[in-house]
TrEMBL record:
One of the GO BP terms on file: iron-sulfur cluster assembly
Domain NIF system FeS cluster assembly NifU N-terminal as annotated: residue spans: 7-126
Name assigned to this protein: SUF system NifU family Fe-S cluster assembly protein
Family classification: Belongs to the NifU family.
PANTHER family tied to this protein: IRON-SULFUR CLUSTER ASSEMBLY ENZYME NIFU HOMOLOG
Lineage: superkingdom: Bacteria
Coiled-coil ranges per UniProt: none
GO molecular function: iron ion binding; iron-sulfur cluster binding
Length: 144
């Protein structure tokens, strides 16, 4: 249907024109994470200033779902307080689990385009890879 087509276009756009692909210079949190089911890996770097994620960039190899999700994730969390970034990650994983997610005040933006992935259990880890990396970085850094 039309919505699926639109979502597919959003995913392909992030895959072909990734936002925030690259590396950050200077002091930044760096997390490497791989998807154990396929071996694909991403590196995520973040700068956290005054409790907010002021910048985020990623590099890595992976499928269209994992890389478009990394692009969308970095776009979504840039500028967010770390608590909100973690909350958004929770919402995203609820969507992937097919649960009714409580969106609160969050505008999901492009992330919404990935909701169809919930129907393909084998791909869920692809979609959550970058989010797990973000969570790990923030938690290990003692930001929450
Ligand atoms: Fe199988 Fe990503 S791990 S599609
Ligand atoms: Fe490896 Fe999707 S198939 S991350």
């Amino acid at each position: 249907n039309q919505l699926d087509t639109l979502y597919r276009q959003v995913i392909m756009d992030h895959y072909k024109n990734p936002r925030n692909r690259g590396e950050l210079d200077g002091d930044s949190l760096t997390v490497n994470m791989n998807n154990p089911t396929c071996g694909d890996r991403i590196q995520l770097q973040m700068k956290v200033e005054d409790g907010k994620i002021s910048d985020a960039k990623f590099t890595g190899e992976g499928c269209s779902i994992s890389l478009s999700s990394a692009s969308m994730m970095t776009q979504a969390v840039k500028g967010l307080p770390v608590e909100d970034a973690l909350k958004l990650s929770e919402i995203f994983s609820d969507i992937m689990l097919g649960k009714d997610a409580d969106y609160g005040d969050f505008d999901l933006g492009d992330i919404e385009a990935l909701q169809g992935v919930a129907k393909f259990p084998a791909r869920i880890k692809c979609a959550t890879l970058a989010w797990k990396a973000m969570e790990k970085g923030i938690k290990e850094d003692g930001q929450v």
